[in-house]
Amino acid sequence: MIRILIFVSVALLVIIGIYLLKKATVFLPIMHNGEPDENKQFLHQFGVFYLILAAIGILVGIFNLKFFSLFYIFSLLVISAVFSVMFAKKIL
């Protein structure tokens, strides 16, 4: 069951990461705080983080070790929470 969750999260991370890298201009009008270049760099940075997490997730899903799977899910949640908080600060 954890393996399925990891592969689903990998698919979502790839989609979100590519979207943040290729379509960053969609989010720029709603980001009021900071310079446009700084905001674009912020979105690009987290797009790369998500793609790196997706690559790590593929390895974790293949090897299917319980400790690494749970640690991967925990780190995924932490990175997502950091992105959400930082993005909310830029919006408000």
Automatic annotation (TrEMBL):
Alphabetic keyword roster: Membrane, Transmembrane, Transmembrane helix
Membrane-crossing residue ranges in chain numbering: 6-21, 42-63, 69-88
Protein name: DUF3784 domain-containing protein
